[in-house]
Amino acid sequence: MPSLFYPAPFALWQLLALAVIVVCASAGSVYLIRRHVAAGGDVLPDSVFWDGFAGLAIVAPAVILPALAAPWAGLLLGVLAVASAAASYFWTPRELSRQEARRASRDIAASNEAAAARHRSLLARWQRYELDPALSIDYPAMSDSRQPETAALIRAMKDAERLRGGTDAGYAPAVARLEQALDDAERAAGVGREAPARPAGFTSTDPALG
Question: Could you say which of 103, 132, 152 is where a domain stops?
Answer without folding.
Answer: 103
